[in-house]
Amino acid sequence: MLDNLKTSLRAAIKKIVNSSGVDEALIKELAKDVQRALLQADVNVKLVLEITKNLEYRSLNENPPPGLSRKDHIVKILYDELANLLGKENEFSFKPGKLNKVLMLGIQGSGKTTLTGKLAKFLTKQGYKVGVIGADTYRPGALVQLKTNCEKANVDVYGEEGNKDSPAIVKNGLKHFADSGLDIILIDTAGRHKEEKDLLDEMKEISKIAEPDLALLVIDGTIGQQCYSQAESFHKTVPVGGIVITKLDSSAKGGGALAASAATGAKIMYVGTGERIDDLELFSPTRFVGRLLGMGDIQALLDLAKRLESEADDVRMKRISSGKMNMDDFYYQLEEVTKVGSLRGFLDSMPGLSGMVKEDQLDQMEGRIQKWRFIIQSMTKQEKADPDLLNASRIKRIARGSGWPEHEVKELLKNYKNSKGMMKAAKGRQMQGFMRKMGLG
């Protein structure tokens, strides 16, 4: 995403890192390079001047903290200033033990219906039970498109083909899902233009019926700085709690969209980074900037390692680290990888691995993980606890039950054994284990 901005910023940093010494002329040159990169990414001129002024002043006047070189400190200042530009960290979380209702809003053509399907998939991966109500009665084929997208996530969609009364559909949809044990309901509404009074009135009525816990505004990243006025006009009708930026993968104006959205005060919660159903991720300014500057998403890896330690019981962790891991433990780790989101997003977050894995290799890896999950699910409790029990006849039965050929079961066993030995060697360095297990180490 934002490849031109990424390339320009990294080139600017390279000048600092490769220089023999840091002087005022070099700092001024860095500020100009950053200025040029941000303006080309359609960031507001006033914001760009503010950032580069701060960058120059701080780089010339601040003393690096103990243990940090002046070069590293300048890169850290750039990191801080860009992260501040993109707003504060999003702290929203869905409330457990109740039905959370999310109203999806957006201009026609923003990619809202596609995004609703992606968000449904993303949330199910996080362990939530999700349902969707299709209330876009204006665009022909909207309900069919929504159902097609949500099928990929195994999410149920409620809609009424032929009914033009959107508020009534929302009311009926909420009744339909009332006793279904869902955690989250996404409500897809008609795309509208800010001057269309009837549609804005309908939006108010739907909001009154649904009483949403969160209104998410979906904005096309290719419109750049216009995001600000768009978000502002929607916010006047229904209070916008979060923003989703779509189409960041191909947008030269993506920097402008991100900066403008952050300036509205509504938090950017998710970003769409590609066309695939899995190409959606939680937005964090600090992580995003880290990836732009080529630092990798260090925080994401620390968070995952922390979750591994806090969620796993002591017995499991002792078993894994001592090399006595069983198939249940192996399955648990596969689940942890998929919780992070798309594998592409996961690999992009790894320092030094961003962009190194080709798309066809990525598809193979994602396919492999899916196969392994199905195969392990076809094993008995005893076989999971002691995979050494798996002889030829058991492998044949598991292959038949999982729907995959016997050689795939054998491939899983081979990788399980490799991982088992590797975990003993890594002991506490689970991230290396994940990468090697996927054939990347």
Please give a structural write-up.
This protein has 441 residues and is an alpha/beta fold. The chain has 3 domains: 3-85, SRP54, nucleotide-binding domain (Four Helix Bundle (Hemerythrin (Met), subunit A)), CATH 1.20.120.140; 100-292, P-loop containing nucleotide triphosphate hydrolases (Rossmann fold, 3-Layer(aba) Sandwich), CATH 3.40.50.300; 298-437, Orthogonal Bundle (434 Repressor (Amino-terminal Domain)). 56% of the residues lie in helices and 10% in strands. It is built from 20 helices and 8 strands. The protein has helices spanning 3-18, 24-40, 45-61, 70-85, 112-125, 142-151, 166-176, 197-210, 227-237, 254-263, 285-292, 298-311, 314-321, 327-339, 343-348, 359-377, 381-385, 392-402, 406-426, 430-437, and strands spanning 100-106, 130-135, 156-158, 184-189, 214-220, 242-246, 267-272, 280-282. The chain has an 8-stranded mixed sheet, with helices on both faces. The chain is flat. The model is unreliable at 428-441 (pLDDT under 50). It is an enzyme of class 3 (hydrolase). Residues 99-294 form the SRP54-type proteins GTP-binding domain. It is found in: Cytoplasm. Its EC number is 3.6.5.4. Belongs to the GTP-binding SRP family. SRP54 subfamily.
Supply the CATH class of the largest domain: Alpha Beta
Count of strand segments:
8
Number of helices: 20
- CATH topology assignment of the largest domain: Rossmann fold
Task: Spell out the helices and strands N to C.
Answer: HHHHEHEHEHEHEHEHEEHHHHHHHHHH
The first-to-last residue Cα distance is: 25 Å
Name the overall outline.
flat
The CATH architecture term of the largest domain is 3-Layer(aba) Sandwich
Query: How many strands, which pairing sense, and closed or not: the largest β-sheet?
Result: 8 strands, mixed
Catalytic activity: GTP + H2O = GDP + phosphate + H(+)
GO cellular component, one term: signal recognition particle
Domain Signal recognition particle SRP54 helical bundle: 1-86
Subunit structure: Part of the signal recognition particle protein translocation system, which is composed of SRP and FtsY. Archaeal SRP consists of a 7S RNA molecule of 300 nucleotides and two protein subunits: SRP54 and SRP19.
